């Protein structure tokens, strides 16, 4: 567990580092075998930040402020560039769209999603779509093509961010809190406040059996980079559970401290798994891959 309270964090793609924004406004790059070495990057100050997110490649951080301003800072110390400053009013940050210079935001007053081109500094796309629930947050698909919106009606909307039609999926679980797509885009995983999860096969248009395992609710979900493992965040002694994404066999329970692990991600190489609770405590775990497990079992029949 990192010795700070985290407001935003990411494993940058194509990197062996971890980036964090703490509750004092410090942006830090963590490196080393267990991310034990801290390198200060930026000091944004602690005042007025209501929301924050990093770009997937770790080159930018966006911060929304109580006064309705939005700032995008460049993280690369070799680029001495001024931050981009915008004034969209009170917004919720959804995230950066992978592989682009675009940031997706949500206006809670009008229920409109807005896509900002950060180079042109203007809105290039906006849409009113499914309203998401109080305990859920929309997520951008790993390939950047879809916005996944859990709705209060126990449905998921897959909103195209490039081209195509909006897709609505009704699932047999209640109070959906989080959802994501597998790296290949075939499987849609969703978890609920009732502690259950389910997979939807987008090719064959059918669901997996509902899988359970949490005494309390599930709050976050992610696939490993190879799509073979599914990690779900919950609470306390059941901070994270890992499943085999094909057989839906439960693999391991990772205990933690605190409640509501609302963000979760694997490192790009799949060796590290991080999850952050509602108190800002970021937990880190390390696990062998399936191939390493197979080699160990073969060497010790």
UniProtKB/TrEMBL annotation:
Q: Where are the WD repeats?
A: 254-285
Q: Which SUPFAM superfamilies does the record match to this protein?
A: YVTN repeat-like/Quinoprotein amine dehydrogenase
Task: Name the InterPro entries on file.
Answer: Quino_amine_DH_bsu, WD40, WD40/YVTN_repeat-like_dom_sf, WD40_rpt
By its UniProt entry, which PROSITE patterns does this protein fall under?
WD_REPEATS_2
Q: Which keywords does this chain's UniProt record carry? A: WD repeat
A Pfam family that the UniProt record links to this protein: WD40
Can you name this protein? Answer: Uncharacterized protein
Instruction: Identify the taxonomic lineage of the organism of origin.
Output: Bacteria, Pseudomonadati, Verrucomicrobiota, Verrucomicrobiia, Limisphaerales
